[in-house]
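Hi R.,

Here's the chain you asked about this morning:
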Amino acid sequence: MNYDNGMCIFLSYSWSDKNVADKIEQYFSEKGIKVKRDTRDIGNWSSIKKFMSSIRSQDYAILIISKKYLTSVNCMFEVMEIAKEEEYQNKIFPVVLEHSIYTAEGKIEYIKFWENSCNELKQSIKTINIENSAEMVIELKRRKQITFNISEFLSLVADMNNPQMENVIDAIEDRLIKSGIKINNNMPNPSLAMDTTFNKSSESIMQKVLKSSFEEWDYYDEHGEFIFKQDVNLKIVRDGFEEKIPFSEPWAVNHPDKNAYMYRYTIFYNNSRIDEFYLVAVDGFRSYIPLPELKSSIIPRKQYLLAKAVNYDGRLDEYIERSNLTVAPK
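And the predicted structure, written out as tokens:
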């Protein structure tokens, strides 16, 4: 591949999100843009840390922000490196898969994670001789840096007008073009056709979910799984109870049971991730309510329809009204 525009994009991601990273790399590589990533650009026995530090010297960085990403020392080290640049927000393209960061409760969970990570490592260091602890102390400093800065980073990303996953590649390309970057649109692009097919397939799958009712799903509470009766390849998986996030927005705690928890639901087809959404369990898990738009009491129509598919108690509309929320019109 010839890269004739002289620019390079650093791809920062968790290996658990490799499928998303592969599509992004393939698309922009075929557009004549060099994409730097670990699986290809770290030579055998080369320094991983040196590679991760090179994020600062690239023109832009795409950050695939997922739960695994935000709890990975290596991924967050890359974030800390690029954050050393002035106005680094102008160099990053966040691809947000972990939507809980848009809430205070979601941010707090990651702050607590890194606080606990630091405390656990600090205690472990105390169990070894001091002369053997030099490298571990460096690691502790690295984790402390993440802990001190993660709140600011999450707030910055959450404040950006991040595109939806299905639109993110077009949005990045549009931003590059507006920045004066030459995009090779004449190059044969078989992956684009493949992705278009994938997107159409994804859209048809989403339409099945959006048009469905709870009665069309087999629900397995012990696994948090909803299996579509008409097509068993389609399923929705709720995160485990141990992964619930305490939630305290006024509308969520305006019930006799004041405890509320946010859960992530992931839509799969043939075990490939299609999309995800979040619901808040309210009033002692009596109903699961979709999140309203930021700084609003209006629930997007799509989120409402997704909630209807997995609310097994039939009281969703009642609890939306009790919470003083409304649903966007059709």
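The chain has two domains: 8-178, 197-327.

Let me know if you need anything else.
M.
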